[in-house]
Design a protein that fits this description.
Order of helices and strands: EEEHEEEEEEE
Helix content: under 10%
Number of strands: 10
Low-confidence stretches: none
Largest sheet: 5 strands, antiparallel
Organism: Mesobacillus selenatarsenatis (strain DSM 18680 / JCM 14380 / FERM P-15431 / SF-1)
Family: Belongs to the YjdM family.
Radius of gyration: 19 Å
Protein name: Protein YjdM
InterPro entries: YjdM (IPR004624), YjdM_C (IPR013988), YjdM_N (IPR013987)
Shape: elongated
CATH architecture of the largest domain: Roll
Strand content: 25-35%
CATH topology of the largest domain: SH3 type barrels
Pfam family, one: YjdM
Length: 113
Amino acid sequence: MSNLPNCPKCGSEYTYEDGTLLVCPECAHEWDPAAETSNGEDNKVIKDANGNVLNDGDTVSVIKDLKVKGTSSVIKIGTKAKNIRLVDGDHDIECKLEGFGAMKLKSEFVKKI
């Protein structure tokens, strides 16, 4: 047996190497074992338009009219999003907006209330 670590996502023991990455054939998760060993200061700080640090559960307000892709709807200035959740990616805030439902926003277009 190899001494490769189990998949951090699903716990599968059938991981294999693909170049510099490790791959899980069961859930298709890929990760860099070198990043795992540094383990720690990878936490990205997400800030709003005014430079305030955002945290999960904060309430934010939209600072400019935002067009909703794929529709003719617009999210107006001042629309509040309560109990936000921070995620990785280009749009780093997940929230629910009244009248729109679940939505992802960029932190540069919101301010902390």
